[in-house]
Amino acid sequence: MIKVVLIDDEENCLSSLAILLTQYCPEVQIMEQCQSVQAGLTAINTHKPDLIFLDIEMPVLNGFDLLEMVKNYPLAVIFTTAYQHYAVKAIRYSALDYLLKPIDYKELIQAVQRYVNQKSQPNPEQYQFLIDKLSQKEHTTKKLAIPNLEGFKLVSIDDIISCEADDNYTHILLKDRIKITACRTLKEIQQLLDDSAIFIRVHHSSLININEVDQYVRGEGGYVIMSDGSHINVSRNKKETLLKYLMK
Fold first, then answer.
1. Between 63-70 and 124-135, two packed helices, what is the crossing angle to 10 degrees?
2. What are phi and psi of 30, to 5 degrees?
3. Is the pLDDT of residue 210 over 90?
4. Domain encompassing residue 82
5. Do the Cβ atoms of 126 and 152 come closer than 8 Å?
6. Structural element, H or E, at residue 217
7. CATH code of 221's domain
8. Are residues 164 and 221 in the same domain?
């Protein structure tokens, strides 16, 4: 069983999450439901949970304050929030998980399954990366934390040449010819890179760094030759958008 603690200052949100976990995630055992950071910290020390569901917006101390306190604890965190603000982007960049309220049971099941599949707790450096991100005055990033089977790898965004879909995984090719397999779909990786204007989807299975295109070869959709020599097909309906980017 996965021991979990739920932390949210809103009682109705706690109750709803508990009901969904009980109904759809039988592998989860709810140890305690807490309505403040202080109560949550006590519950964590008492029950030693494997996983906590942590609300971001709470009075007095918020979810990130608690994260600072427990960042070296052997537990995983799934954030919950009703707001699509900068914090969500920072969480994504840190390769951590979150759920938007109202929580959809399918997304909850997927989040718990990702925890199960990960088979390892997030590295304390991952939490520190998030804390550092949130402390920056400008919430932009030059680096991305890529989740993999071993944990995560910090990658400079400018070093990414292309991303290739492989079912629920994504192969990320870097300038030094290293290939990282991320435990995220291509759609999720693209969402992480949305703030960067240098990435464009050229095929349902391919995302490229426009600055790393060496040549475009004509065809029905054609294909691009990247700086590492790789050839990537361009779908017919993406061709016009690609050419506009290349002509800028």
1. 140
2. -80, 115
3. yes
4. 2-135
5. yes
6. strand 213-217
7. 2.40.50.1020
8. yes
Q: For the chain, how many structural domains are there in total?
A: 2
Distance CA(216)–CA(232), nearest Å, equals 10
Q: Do 63 and 103 form a contact (C-beta atoms < 8 A)? A: no
Task: Name the token pair of 144.
Answer: 């991305």
Q: What element of type H or E holds 191?
A: helix 186-192
Task: Determine phi and psi for 136, rounding to 5 degrees.
Answer: -70, 140
Task: Give the integer Cα–Cα distance in Å for 72 and 190.
Answer: 30
Residue 225, beta-bridge partner list: 215, 231
Residues 1, 28: contact at Cβ < 8 Å? yes
Q: Does some domain include residue 73?
A: yes
Which secondary-structure segment (H or E) carries 247?
Answer: helix 239-247
The structure's pTM equals 0.58
Digit-coded pLDDT (tens) for 27-77: 999 999 999 999 999 999 999 999 999 998 888 888 888 988 888 888 888
Query: Are 115 and 169 part of one and the same domain?
Result: no
